Amino acid sequence: MATKQEMQNRIIQAVETVKKGNPMAGSITNTVTINFVANAQLAVGGSAAMVYLPDEAEFLAKAGGATYINVGTLLPIYEETLPHVAKILHETGKPWVLDPVAVGIGSLRTDLLQKFKAFKPTIIRGNASEIIALAGLWALDGGAEESRVRGVDATDSVHEAKRAAIALAKWTGGAVAVSGETDLITDGSIIAISYGGSHFMEKITGAGCSLGGVAAVYATVTTPFIAALTASAVYNVAGKRAELKVDGPGSFQAQFLDELYKATAEEIANNSFDLEEINL
């Protein structure tokens, strides 16, 4: 297992490479949060492009460094778009991030997420209940047969999703990030617990969605685990700092974007996190 210092060095390298290179991570994402996702990707140094048509998604998958797929608000065209682009990403070896929003609440959503199993997302990001439900849908360890997702909200704790997250990471060969009061990130062999953030993140729309988009930006330049850890770290830094400067969720969202933009590579790498080796 890499040391904490080695991981911090990799985080610094990832952040600096993104800021210098402005890599594109295209998105097929939640229409409720599409603006916030794009702005967050831009704030950390990436380039954003939002599409939903099959041919445009194929172009971005091939042209970009990574792709973000969020199933939050599904349109009928997504039945064609999403499996098509996921297959291309898998076959070309391009990194992609899956956010299984509200897994289990409808037949189209369930069918699409089931199809994604074969295409092995590079990073899966979700709340605890979504991670548990996705592992259940994919018949993996730690999953639940029935989704306990309440709309887009979790009813399970991050700790309760640990087994499911490990199983998903082992299946995909990538990383899983479970968002909550503290964030759990794993590649199936190690776990990082990232601290920080703000209670205001629960009071705005798109904190989790935009985190997935930012993870895709970092996935263009580093490993899945470091990309997910870096994204969680910059969110925890920015959330903690923004909370100190605002009085409510409206001003928090704007200040949060400012703090994402201002956070240095060293500040992100030094955000508090613990490491645990998995012995299974």
UniProtKB/TrEMBL annotation:
Binding residues for substrate: 50, 206
Entry keywords, A to Z: ATP-binding, Kinase, Magnesium, Metal-binding, Nucleotide-binding, Thiamine biosynthesis, Transferase
Pathway listed: Cofactor biosynthesis; thiamine diphosphate biosynthesis; 4-methyl-5-(2-phosphoethyl)-thiazole from 5-(2-hydroxyethyl)-4-methylthiazole: step 1/1
Cofactor(s) the protein needs: Mg(2+)
Chemical reaction(s) catalysed: 5-(2-hydroxyethyl)-4-methylthiazole + ATP = 4-methyl-5-(2-phosphooxyethyl)-thiazole + ADP + H(+)
Signal peptide annotation: none
Keyword Transferase: yes
Single GO MF descriptor: hydroxyethylthiazole kinase activity
Enzyme Commission number(s) of this protein: 2.7.1.50
Residues holding ATP: 125, 179
TM ranges: none
Record-linked Pfam families: HK
The keyword Protease is annotated on this UniProt entry: no
Record function comment: Catalyzes the phosphorylation of the hydroxyl group of 4-methyl-5-beta-hydroxyethylthiazole (THZ).
Entry-linked NCBIfam families: PRK09355.1
Family the UniProt entry places it in: Belongs to the Thz kinase family.
Name of the protein in its database record: Hydroxyethylthiazole kinase
Organism whose genome encodes this protein: Solibacillus faecavium
Lineage, opening ranks: Bacteria, Bacillati, Bacillota, Bacilli, Bacillales
